[in-house]
Each structure stands twice: as structure tokens, then as C-alpha cells.
Specification:
Two copies of one chain form a homodimer. Chain A is α/β, with parallel strands linked by helices and 447 residues long. Helix content of chain A is 26%, strand content 27%. In chain A, a hairpin with a 6-residue loop joins strand 23 and strand 24. The longest helix of chain A is centred in the last third of the chain and has 15 residues. The termini of chain A are far apart. Chains A and B meet through helix 8, strand 20, strand 21 and helix 10 of A and helix 8, strand 20, strand 21 and helix 10 of B.
Chain lengths: 447, 447
């Protein structure tokens, strides 16, 4: 009988694992259990569907169950894994029919993703997290039925993307953030530019206020949000206070959970102590190369890579996930926003001494049409000048420059070397010194 | 008496040298001789002025003579250096008045730039190269006086930028290139996409044809261009066949000229054998880090950096120019075009064995508005997988990714490491795997 690889979770990590295993071993039996109706969808695209920039939710689906089946993967949508017996190599699964069945496996990939971390606020449990394609469809349908006001609880990037989507639909939008800055992944002075962009887009931002209640009407629909500052009308509410790894079943099975709350894995995506058992994606930890400790970063790009690596290694391969450095990018109203490596605040929290410099420049030659502001902040080690991180905010063309900094951080370049690096120049793309070179030079002066 | 730093040439390299020396040593006497009327202008911006994207030519001037004078630099515009006596530390200069004068120096920076390499074609000498702000003004004035047809001789990036400018002004434009591809800095299959863009913009491209005569009317204005293929109407003609380092005076003075035809310099921009004499910018060589030999690359970004380094080192500093890797970017009609490191053809010519892969992808998530094609070609060493170069063509957002490849080439990353690097992802900026990661993975498979 063929060996059997079972996969728990049919989104980015799970289906990447399934696909790479399928390609490597044509004789393997590959089965993937997904409790929802969809596979391989882009949760990152949901705000654009809500905004109406993407017309149909199905466009967010990179590859549906039928397409995976055509490629020889036994996808079971509507099947929920209830328990994992690692010793007996057996899953307990509630089938789409409702029946509980046992499903054997030889190798296992746990790719259960993350779930909304709804805060303990009265009424918040009535708000469905817009984390799946079908939830997004319900949210958009509610928006299309009407309403004038929206409140977004939490000022992270997903909250901001959703606030922008609501504003684009003509709603009065208020964002409530309990910290004293939005976009907590950036240092505060960089986050202030993002707040400018949000406010310029018509989004009201309330900082330092906690939400005390989501007031729900008799029909279960939101009506208002009561905060420590004031009570806000809210025909629509989004809770954007983050997500936590979905590890209940894996924990119950005895797989190790790290301090981050996610599944511990080694650099081959193996779950320690359990041969042939792998974890990947939002439910798993990643090694942070600068902090030198495991972290939980929920991003589609890591999920895809880790899933592929799990699939390769589950079929006798030897691929290593090299870790993460915290690179992220988003588009927030008129600005693009990006970060990589360590921020100044993050370094301080980790007890790492750094120097940092921030510059303001233009995205193109000053005389070239469309030139706009770009701010670049670099963080470096005081002795060696080694680049440890960067943050960028600016108009179109600004943010993807973060990948240059990510590559430099990854390779261990020092800021004085970065300042003289042969980066491209032409007037439609930058001034004669790219803003990254200007920032590197400003930082090098502090070393 | 104060020491005196003399600078020959008042554009990017010369004025960068003047400015950095001025800042470092307030007591130094800094004099810069520029034979034209302008300083520190962006020759790279000329096509955009010709197109009308930039309204006034003065906008191309980053800093005029008066601004430099206010900063304590004795700028002499309209003064032409005729001879350098290195032993006597004395320049012979034709002053703006026409008088020949002797000007002493202690340290010298030669920044004489490059000059059009007009090919030996009958009539071509009648066409003024559009390399300076005043020449660009004359060209635009001629365009505004009328004409229906234009011919661009030479299919490099400047020729293409000028062809686009002419097309944008409503002219019938034909480009004549004697090789069998345009954009010779790219490998042929990548250049083919650029040709598509040019042709889609209404530019007729004739390959493999040599120009035999520029037919000029009695008033000295162009009328036609006779090629080996056919004779073309030409109310306007641009010769875009490259430029050569302007080194006549320096050669005469005994400064060493390298095989590239440019001035030899060490990694401190010093002219070998002559203490206190520096060269920088288009007239000087640069060390190519991959070819490990001197090359002459005429780009404003190198000119600025080398000028600054010359100015620092001329005032007792110790800055090293780390060399170049051939990074370049341009916008050609609907596409952005970029390259870094070695191309496949270039490597073959240098006798370097490589593997290479080319991928086609989208600039954004497929469902996100504005996603368009991007082609990425990578070149790597067959044994180590070390990235040696990359080329990118694609729609908006494509080309600045070249800086990621430049950083990776610079740092010596291998393609399998690049394939798993933590680059940024969000739907407005890329698919879940950035096209660079896709290309790196495709290339890694060949190693």
C-alpha cells in the first residue's frame, strides 16, 4: 500500500505542502482536510474585496479544491480534524457528512493557520472575523445593504486596510487604538506619517482609548461602540486586534508549543520529538535571524515557503527554512509602508543597542512628474555599523525598496558599504542618490 | 596663503568634489572651471525636458553657479581649461573674457565628463548632441517650430528615451540600430520586450541597418537619413550612439588613460603617479567588481559618489570607492527596464561560464488592479550558485527591484539563498512569491 501524507488545513501552507509532496512523489497518497469550503485563498486580499477593488471573492482563490484534485491531491473540504493520535498515526475527522471517521497517516503536516484573537470586550463576540472568503462575502453583503458609519477596533495594518476599504465605500470611519500610536510594527515617528495618510483619507483616528463594549441590536447587528473616550455610532464593526496560532488540536495531541504560542519546529519544519510530523504557516514558529529566537509571524509568503519545505522534507527531501527578519509591506491610503529587521523600539525592548537615522527625500528626481515624499529610517549596530533594520513610508514606488534593506540586513552589510552600493538611478525612479543611499550615509555618520 | 583645490568641470562629479572639499576644509580655496554656462545639471533629465514632461530646462539644474558661490566655491562658468601642467601645478585657462590665464593649484580634480561619440557618417556632424541644458533648449525650440518626422540613430537607452519623447510630441519616429537588437545592455530576449514597448508606442524600429548619410538642407537643418535599408524623412535627427570620456587635456598633461579610454584611477580616485591629482565621473574608470577590471560607466550616480570621494580625499580624507557592478534602470514607454551585474551575453564575452533562467510573472497579486507583466532573468555561477547578475523588464513597479539583485550580487548571495529570503509581500506589490523569488528558485533548479 502507498504511504499516506495527511495535511491538516487547506490554505497556503497546507496546500503548498500537498503540492510539493505530490510533485516529488507520484506514488504517495496525499490527503488534505480543510474545514471550510475553500482552499489556497488569499486572506491578504480580503480588504480589497471589501473595498470593491476586487469584484468577486473567488478571485482571491489561487487554486480551488477541484484544481487540486485534478493534480492528484485528495482534498476534503468541509472536513474538520478533531484529534491527532501521533502514536497510532491516526486522525479523528468530522466528515462533511457530519460523521466522525478515523483517517490514517504516515507523515503529517499541521497547517491549521491562525484564528482571530477577539478581545474580551462585551459584544465583540457578535462580530464575525473577516478572515475567510465566505466571511468576507458576508461582510461585503452587509455593507451593500447599507449603513453610514463604521468603527475599526485596532490600528494595525489589517485594521488600516479595512478602514481604508470602508472609507472608499463612503462610510464615516473611526479607528480606535488603545496604544498611543497606530501601526505598532513601526517606530512612532514613522507611524505618525501613516496616521497622516489615514486621516487625509477621512479616517478618524482615536489613540489611547480602550473599547468597552460593542453595542449590538436585537437582530445581532452592531449599532455602536462604547470606548473609554466616547461612544461611536457603528453600523459596521471590524475587530482588527490580531490573530493567534490555531493550535488547539495539535497541543492536545502533544506537539510542543513555544513561547510565542505557536508550534515549535526545527529548521526543517519538523515538530521536535515526532518523526514524520511537520508544521508550517501561521500556526508555526519561525526563527528570527536577528533576535535569534522563535517568533510567530503570520504572513502568506512564509506560509507558502514553509509549506513547500514541509512537503519536500515529508517526502525525503532536505530543505531548510532559513528564518525570517520581519519584513512586511502594506499600502495604507496614499502611502506605502514597509519594515524589515529591527526597529528602534523593538531593539530597545530586546536590549540591543543601536544607532538610527531618518531621512526625508523624494521618490523620483525632483523635476520628474509624480515625485513625492519618502521617509527612510535605518537602524544599525553602533560598533560595526551593520544594518539591523529599516522602515519606509512614502508615495508610490517607496515601499518595495524595503527588499533592498532586507537583502542587506540578511547579508550583514554595514551602512557605510550600503551608502556606496551600486543601486540603480534614473530620474523616473529616484534622485541621483537613491533615498536608501542617503539614509545609509546619514546612519554611517553616526557610527 | 591658503591651499588651493582646482576642479576641471562643473557638473555632477566636479561640483560634488568641490562641495565635499568645501565642507571639510573651510580654509581651502576651492575653484571650479566649467566651460559651459551651467553647473550641476541632470543630463539624464534631458529627454523629459524634450518630451515636455519637465517644463523649463532650469529645473534640471540641481544647483546653479550662484548657489555654489554662496557656499564659498569660486565657480567660473564660461572658463575652459586648455592645459594642465602637473609639474608646475598650474592650469592654462581661457577665461570667459577670452583671455588666456594661468591658474595655480595644489590639489586637482579632473571631472571633464564625456562627449558625444559622433559616428563617421556624412552629415552627422551637423547634428548637435543634446547633452547639455542649452543644447536641449535648442532641440526643444526646433521641435516647437514644427516638423513631422524624426529619426533616432542608435538604439541604446538614451536613444529610446529620446524616441519616446519625440513620439509623445506627435512625431513619426524611426529608430535605426545597426545591431540585431536594441538596448544592447540587455540580453536579446529581454531587449525584445523593450522593442515591443517602443513599437507599441508608435516608434518604428529598424534593426541591422547602418546609417550612410544624414541629409542636411541648405540651412543646415536635417531633411532625411539615408540608411543601408532605405531613406527616411527626418525633420529632426538625434544621434544616440554613445559618448566617450573627454580626456584630451588630461592625456596631454600626461595622466594615464586606461584601455576603456577613460582616466585611470585607484580606489581613492587618485590618478596613479601624481600626488594630489584626482579624477571622477564620466571621464574616469571604475573598477567592475565582477569582471575585476576597470570599465568606463557614464552615470550620474557614480559621478556624484566619485566626486564626493575625490573631494574628501583631496582634503586629507580616506574614502574608498568600492567599484561598480553595472546597475542601470530606465523607463522606456510602457515598460521599466533594468539590469545589474553580468548578463548572459556579457558573461560569454568575458569567458565566464554561467547558468541562467528567465521567468514571466505579474507585478502585483493577479487579482489586484494594475497587475501587469514582469520578466526577470537571473545569471548565476554554475558551481556555487552565486548570483552574478539580473535583468528586469515590466510595467510600473518592476524595475526598482533590480536594487535587490544588485545588493544580492554585491553581497555574494547564492540563488538558493535568495529564493528563501524574507522579501516583502502584500497584494498591491507582488504575488505571494515576489517575482525575484520565483526567478531565484527557477535558477537554483539549474545549479
Amino acid at each position: 500500500m502507498a504511504r499516506r501524507l495527511a495535511i491538516v488545513g487547506g490554505d497556503a501552507a497546507g496546500m503548498s505542502a500537498a503540492s510539493s509532496a505530490r510533485r516529488r512523489d507520484p506514488d504517495l497518497d496525499v490527503v488534505a482536510f480543510e474545514r471550510g469550503p475553500y482552499t489556497s485563498y488569499s486572506a491578504c486580499g480580503i480588504p480589497y474585496f471589501v473595498a470593491g477593488l476586487v469584484d468577486r471573492a473567488e478571485r482571491l482563490i489561487a487554486r480551488g479544491p477541484e484544481q487540486h484534485r485534478e493534480r492528484g491531491i485528495d482534498v476534503r473540504t468541509g472536513w474538520e480534524v478533531l484529534a491527532i493520535d501521533l502514536a497510532a498515526r491516526r486522525l479523528t475527522v468530522r466528515a462533511a457528512s457530519g460523521e466522525e471517521v478515523g483517517e490514517p497517516f504516515d507523515e503529517l503536516v499541521v497547517a491549521t493557520g491562525a484564528e482571530a484573537a477577539t478581545p474580551p470586550i462585551a459584544g465583540a463576540e457578535a462580530i464575525e472575523p473577516a478572515r475567510t472568503v465566505d466571511a468576507a462575502e458576508r461582510l461585503r453583503a452587509a455593507l451593500e445593504r447599507g449603513g453610514r458609519s463604521a468603527v475599526v477596533i485596532g490600528g494595525g495594518y489589517i485594521g488600516l486596510e479595512m478602514a481604508e476599504a470602508f472609507a472608499d465605500r463612503g462610510l464615516d470611519v473611526t479607528m480606535v487604538e488603545q496604544e498611543d500610536q497606530i501601526m505598532g510594527t513601526l517606530d512612532d515617528e514613522m507611524a505618525a506619517h501613516v496616521q497622516d495618510a489615514a486621516e487625509g483619507h477621512g479616517i478618524r483616528v482615536i489613540l489611547g482609548a480602550s473599547v468597552e463594549e460593542v453595542v449590538v441590536d436585537d437582530a445581532g447587528a452592531p449599532a455602536a461602540v462604547r470606548t473609554s473616550a466616547e461612544t461611536l455610532d457603528a453600523d459596521h464593526v471590524v475587530v482588527g486586534t490580531g490573530a493567534r496560532p490555531a493550535v488547539a488540536v495539535a497541543r492536545e495531541a502533544g506537539l510542543q508549543i513555544g513561547d510565542s504560542g505557536a508550534l515549535r519546529v526545527d529548521d526543517h519544519q519538523r515538530c521536535p520529538g515526532h518523526d514524520g510530523v511537520f508544521a508550517a504557516g501561521d500556526c508555526a514558529e519561525s526563527h528570527h535571524r536577528l533576535l535569534d529566537r522563535p517568533v510567530n509571524v503570520q504572513l502568506g509568503t512564509h506560509a507558502n515557503k514553509q509549506g513547500r519545505i514541509a512537503g519536500v522534507n515529508a517526502t525525503g527531501g532536505d530543505l531548510r527554512f532559513p528564518g525570517v527578519i520581519g519584513t512586511a509591506v502594506s499600502k495604507i491610503c496614499k502611502y506605502e509602508v514597509a519594515r524589515t529587521g529591527l526597529g528602534e523600539a523593538e531593539a530597545a525592548e530586546a536590549g540591543i543597542e543601536v544607532v538610527s537615522a531618518t531621512i526625508e527625500d523624494r521618490t523620483r528626481a525632483a523635476y520628474y512628474p509624480g515625485a513625492g515624499p519618502i521617509w527612510v529610517k535605518l537602524v544599525a549596530a553602533p560598533g560595526s555599523g551593520r544594518l539591523l533594520g529599516g522602515q519606509i513610508v512614502g508615495v508610490e514606488g517607496a515601499a518595495k525598496r524595503i527588499d533592498v534593506l532586507a537583502t542587506a540586513v540578511w547579508a550583514g552589510l554595514a551602512v557605510d558599504e550600503l551608502a556606496l552600493l551600486d543601486l540603480s538611478y534614473a530620474p523616473p525612479f529616484s534622485g541621483v542618490y537613491d533615498p536608501l543611499l542617503v539614509a545609509a550615509r546619514a546612519t554611517a555618520k553616526l557610527i
